[in-house]
């Protein structure tokens, strides 16, 4: 009963939110570097406001992140102390190919990750590597237009070949694109795309998505060729939509909203564009350049497992007047009157995780991997300087409990769980430091002040116990 014996407990980060060192080791500039905090952030990540270099008067939190580039050894030691079996991290593409279109990789960048992976193995930690978590070399955006351009597949393939060959034996678990559906909601952050006046944005986004889907299949093919032990996953920003009411129009809306996200995984896991998507694209006058070779590749090289993030469930309605009452986040949702929300308006719904797991497992019948989940909250040290984050423990205990139900009671096959931001890092949505997810506190504020010193929160020992008991003692 319970979780597998080899269940992969751990935590997750992304290069752009923790590494910093943006000019170190020959690293090139990336989209994530030039995204500032503040009121224009949303317009920038959604591709409406173009920012392609540093501008006067803005603060760019990714430049230094939490300085993990320099502190990864002591940070990984702390993960080891908690008993992590896995650590999810991402590769900063522009460390490996600073411009993106070079023929030869940058050795300093490759060495950095090699050292990092070796450090993980010292503690028996299996790296889980996201090949791209939102970042794209800036040169590829300026010269080629990011993922809107088919050439990107060539550059991504080159990156993948280098990674799979260099890290053979060090890395076994790979994710091709973080939250691949984010391309629809934050195209500059997700895929290096900004829009030109008057262009058909949906056309651009779906063509770019097609390029990513083909690149993902190609990566899966190469990963398996280089090492048959490699396991490749897709990654979805998941959470099922609930219909706001039993009005069939709301139910239908919910189903279509879900399909808007499943579309990507349907292609990556089942190997073809689903009928509903082809019909919708046709109806909306979106024409995709898609060759027979593309279709064969998609068919033959489907993913080994389904990974996803889950923070909050979503609500769909056909009633336009309710849609105005959105509750935080980049995903359109109506406020759910039955749920409490976080300080950032993300609704807290542990059962929703079990529902989402069941939906995904019913649909794909492949092992699942929860690679992000957690509570973004303000942590205030007490007089002794400790962080007593019982709210975080409550959130995680409830979600891990629901995940255990999905495994024990529903029979879902789950490979592992990595909580998001196991060490405090920069928020992707807002660029803030004060939206914290970690078991480890980092002394740094929204303006970039602070010593960067690490300290354990109350949840540190709690998670250590959860791992030691394989999720029995929450
Ligand atoms: P933050 C929303 C906005 C941006 C990225 O988000 C997101 C989401 C949530 O669906 O996706 C993931 O930092 C992402 C992480 C991110 C995390 O959610 O805005 O993969 O990079 O940090 C949490 O609180």
From TrEMBL:
One of its GO terms (molecular function) is beta-glucosidase activity. The keyword Signal does not apply. InterPro entries: GH, GH_1_N_CS, Glyco_hydro_1, Glyco_hydro_1_AS. One of its GO terms (biological process) is carbohydrate catabolic process. Keywords: Glycosidase, Hydrolase. It comes from the Bacteria. GO terms for cellular component: cytosol. The keyword Secreted does not apply. The active site is at residue 372. Belongs to the glycosyl hydrolase 1 family. This is 6-phospho-beta-glucosidase. The lineage of its organism: Bacteria, Bacillati, Bacillota, Bacilli, Lactobacillales.
């Amino acid at each position: 009963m319970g979780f597998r014996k080899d269940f992969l407990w751990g935590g997750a980060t992304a290069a752009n939110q923790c590494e910093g060192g943006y000019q170190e080791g020959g690293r090139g500039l990336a989209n994530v570097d030039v995204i500032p905090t503040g009121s224009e952030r949303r317009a920038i990540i959604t591709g409406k406001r173009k920012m392609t270099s540093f501008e006067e008067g803005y603060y760019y939190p990714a430049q230094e992140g939490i300085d993990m580039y320099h502190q990864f050894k002591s940070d990984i030691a702390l993960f080891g102390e908690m008993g992590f079996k896995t650590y999810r991290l991402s590769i900063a593409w522009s460390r490996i190919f600073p411009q993106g279109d070079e023929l030869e990789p940058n050795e300093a960048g490759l060495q950095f990750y090699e050292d990092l992976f070796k450090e993980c193995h010292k503690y028996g930690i299996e790296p889980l590597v996201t090949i791209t978590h939102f970042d794209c070399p800036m040169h590829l955006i300026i010269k080629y237009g990011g993922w809107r351009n088919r050439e990107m597949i060539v550059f991504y393939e080159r990156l993948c070949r280098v990674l799979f060959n260099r890290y053979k034996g060090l890395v076994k678990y790979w994710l091709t694109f973080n939250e691949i559906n984010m391309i629809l909601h934050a195209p500059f952050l997700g895929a290096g795309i900004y829009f030109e006046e008057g262009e058909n944005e949906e056309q651009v986004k779906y063509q770019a998505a097609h390029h990513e889907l083909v690149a993902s299949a190609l990566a899966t093919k190469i990963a398996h060729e280089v090492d048959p032990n490699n396991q490749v996953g897709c990654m979805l920003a998941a959470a099922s939509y609930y219909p706001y009411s039993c009005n069939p129009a709301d139910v239908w809306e919910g189903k279509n909203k879900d399909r808007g996200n499943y579309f990507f995984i349907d292609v990556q896991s089942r190997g073809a564009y689903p009928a509903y998507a082809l019909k919708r694209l046709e109806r909306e006058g979106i024409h995709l350049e898609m060759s027979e070779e593309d279709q064969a590749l998609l068919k033959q090289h489907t993913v080994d497992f389904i990974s996803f993030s889950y923070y909050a469930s979503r609500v769909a309605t056909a009633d336009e007047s309710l849609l105005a009452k959105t509750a935080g986040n980049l995903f359109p949702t109506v406020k759910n009157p039955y749920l409490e929300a976080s300080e950032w308006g993300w609704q807290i719904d542990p059962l929703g995780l079990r529902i989402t797991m069941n939906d995904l497992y019913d649909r794909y019948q492949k092992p699942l991997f929860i690679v992000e989940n957690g509570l973004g909250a303000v942590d205030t040290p007490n007089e002794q300087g400790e962080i007593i984050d019982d709210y975080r423990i409550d959130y995680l205990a409830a979600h891990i409990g629901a995940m255990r139900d999905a495994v024990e009671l529903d029979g879902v096959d789950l490979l592992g769980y990595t909580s998001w931001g196991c060490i405090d890092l920069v928020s992707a949505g807002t660029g803030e430091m004060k939206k914290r997810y970690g078991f480890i506190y980092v002394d740094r504020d929204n303006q970039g002040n602070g010593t960067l010193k690490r300290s354990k929160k109350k949840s540190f020992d709690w998670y250590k116990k959860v791992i030691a008991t394989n999720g029995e003692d929450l």
